[in-house]
C-alpha cells in the first residue's frame, strides 16, 4: 500500500496560527518581535527565499527588515552591520542569508552574530548547546523535520534513524535532535559505503544531500517515515527533492513531497525562533 503523503503546508499553517496568537500576546505587552534578514549579492534562489521569509513574518505580525547589500560588500562592512543589529533592542533575530560571496568568510559572520539573536541556530554556542543536550536556538530545517514527526505523533524513541547528508545546516543538527529524542542515529554521506544497506534499516530516513532523486524506493524500508529536505530544480524547470517520490512513496509509510513537505516548516521554525529569541534579549 502506498505511503501517506505528509502535508507540510497544513502542519506549518497550524503552527503559524499558534505563532500569530503568541505575537498578539507579546504586542499586548508592548513587545513587537523584530527580525533582520540580510542578503548580500544577487543569488536568485536566495532572493526568493528572503522574499518568502519577509512575507511569512508579515503574515504573523513579526516586523521584518530586509537589508539588501551589493555583492561587492566587504567582510568588514558586513561585520559592522551585524554589530549594529546585535546592539538594536528592536531586533530580536538576525539572519544572514547563505551562501555569502566568496570573499566573505561565512564562519566569521556566523560567529559575529550574537548567539542570543541567532535565529538560524548556526552559532557554535547554539550548535554546541544542541549537541550537549540543552538546545537553545535550533537550526530551522531540522527543527521543522522534528516538528513534523511530533505533530504526526510518530514515535522516535528507540527507532533506527538514518540521516543522509552531514551539513552543518541540516545533517549534523538533525542527527543531534533525533539523538536527543532517543533514536539510534546513523549519519551517511558521500563517502559512505553500501549506502542502500544502511538506508534500508531506517525507520526514520531524513535526506539532505542536494542531489535530485538520489534515494529511490529500493533504498527505503517498508513502512519507513521519509523526510525529504532537498529542493532541486531540474533543467525542465520542475522542482524535485532528493528522494524519488514516486518509487519511495510505494514503499514508505509516510513521506514528504517536494514542494509542500519540509519547505514550509523551515520558515515556520524561523518565525518560532524569532519569538524564542525574545527570551534571550537583554532586558
Ligand atoms: N541558505 C539556505 N538555507 C539557509 C538557512 O536556513 N539560513 C540561512 N541563513 N541561509 C540559508
TrEMBL record:
How does this protein assemble?
Homodimer.
Protein name as annotated: Bifunctional protein FolD
Residues covered by the Tetrahydrofolate dehydrogenase/cyclohydrolase catalytic domain? 6-120
Please write the reaction equations for the catalytic activity of this protein: (6R)-5,10-methenyltetrahydrofolate + H2O = (6R)-10-formyltetrahydrofolate + H(+); (6R)-5,10-methylene-5,6,7,8-tetrahydrofolate + NADP(+) = (6R)-5,10-methenyltetrahydrofolate + NADPH
This molecule's function is given as: Catalyzes the oxidation of 5,10-methylenetetrahydrofolate to 5,10-methenyltetrahydrofolate and then the hydrolysis of 5,10-methenyltetrahydrofolate to 10-formyltetrahydrofolate.
Query: Which terms under GO biological process does the entry name?
Result: L-histidine biosynthetic process; methionine biosynthetic process; purine nucleotide biosynthetic process; tetrahydrofolate interconversion
This protein's pathway reads: One-carbon metabolism; tetrahydrofolate interconversion
An example GO CC term for this entry is:
cytosol
Q: Which organism is it from?
A: Thermanaerosceptrum fracticalcis
Query: What Pfam families does the entry give?
Result: THF_DHG_CYH, THF_DHG_CYH_C
Query: According to the UniProt entry, what is the EC number of this protein?
Result: 1.5.1.5, 3.5.4.9
Gene Ontology MF, one: methenyltetrahydrofolate cyclohydrolase activity
User: In what residue span(s) does the Tetrahydrofolate dehydrogenase/cyclohydrolase NAD(P)-binding domain sit?
Assistant: 139-280
Keyword Iron among UniProt keywords: no
UniProt binding sites for NADP(+): 165-167, 231
Indicate the family of this protein.
Answer: Belongs to the tetrahydrofolate dehydrogenase/cyclohydrolase family.
Q: Which UniProt keywords apply?
A: Amino-acid biosynthesis, Histidine biosynthesis, Hydrolase, Methionine biosynthesis, Multifunctional enzyme, NADP, One-carbon metabolism, Oxidoreductase, Purine biosynthesis
Keyword Heme present in the record's keywords: the answer is no
Amino acid at each position: 500500500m502506498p505511503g501517506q503523503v505528509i502535508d507540510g503546508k497544513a502542519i506549518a499553517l497550524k503552527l503559524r496560527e499558534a505563532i500569530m496568537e503568541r505575537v498578539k500576546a507579546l504586542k499586548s505587552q508592548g513587545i513587537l518581535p523584530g527580525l533582520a534578514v540580510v542578503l548580500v549579492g544577487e543569488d536568485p534562489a536566495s532572493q526568493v527565499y528572503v522574499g518568502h521569509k519577509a512575507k511569512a513574518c508579515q503574515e504573523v505580525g513579526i516586523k521584518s527588515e530586509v537589508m539588501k547589500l551589493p555583492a561587492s560588500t566587504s567582510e568588514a562592512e558586513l561585520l559592522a552591520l551585524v554589530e549594529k543589529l546585535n546592539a538594536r533592542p528592536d531586533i530580536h533575530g538576525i539572519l544572514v542569508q547563505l551562501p555569502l560571496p566568496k570573499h566573505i568568510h561565512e564562519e566569521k559572520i556566523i560567529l559575529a552574530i550574537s548567539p542570543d539573536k541567532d535565529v538560524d541556530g548556526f552559532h557554535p554556542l547554539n550548535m554546541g548547546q544542541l549537541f550537549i543536550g540543552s538546545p537553545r536556538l535550533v537550526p530551522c530545517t531540522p527543527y521543522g523535520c522534528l516538528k513534523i514527526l511530533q505533530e504526526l505523533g510518530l514515535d522516535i524513541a528507540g527507532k533506527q534513524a538514518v540521516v543522509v547528508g552531514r551539513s552543518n545546516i541540516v545533517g549534523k543538527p538533525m542527527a543531534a535532535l533525533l539523538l536527543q529524542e532517543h533514536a539510534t542515529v546513523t549519519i551517511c554521506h558521500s563517502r559512505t559505503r553500501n549506502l542502500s544497506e544502511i538506508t534500508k534499516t531506517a525507520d526514520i530516513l531524513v535526506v539532505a544531500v542536494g542531489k535530485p532523486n538520489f534515494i529511490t524506493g529500493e533504498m527505503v524500508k517498508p513502512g519507513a517515515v521519509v523526510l525529504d529536505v532537498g529542493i532541486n530544480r531540474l533543467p525542465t524547470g520542475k522542482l524535485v527533492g532528493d528522494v524519488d517520490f514516486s518509487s519511495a512513496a510505494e514503499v514508505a509509510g509516510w513521506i514528504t513531497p517536494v514542494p509542500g513537505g519540509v519547505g514550509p516548516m523551515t520558515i515556520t521554525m524561523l518565525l518560532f525562533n524569532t519569538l524564542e529569541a525574545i527570551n534571550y534579549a537583554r532586558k
